[in-house]
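I have been asked to look over a protein record a colleague put together. What it holds is a sequence and that sequence's fold in token form. Please read both lines and tell me whether the tokens look consistent with the sequence. I do not need a full report, just your reasoning and any doubts. This is what I was given:
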Amino acid sequence: MSTTKTAIAKVGVVVVPVSDEDRAIEFYVDKLGFEKRADVPFGGSYRWVEVAPPGAETTIAIVRPPEGKQAGNAETGIALHTDDIASVHTDLKGRGVDVDAEISAMGDPVPPMFWLRDQDGNSLMVVEVS
């Protein structure tokens, strides 16, 4: 265990590069059921948009990348937690979300999980936690 001390207290925001903020809001808010926490202009033609599951502390910023950088098709490394993976999988599939065909159930100690992709092909994992 590290003995290094830091003033960093939490993960506040995770950035996901998207091609169109409005389409991303439709996906994350309307399809996933997240709350829109911020939507403000910045830096000329950019918008800073943050979304999160209701009650969550950490937010996801869905923003266009800087000039010359690509949006989409990123493995975000984001794991969304649920206590009922089967119903979340069924619900998201019914809403037209691009989800894996099946829930991956590898057995202990790996929890059941599946991947979903947003409107730009960015992937997020949904994991059942008890």
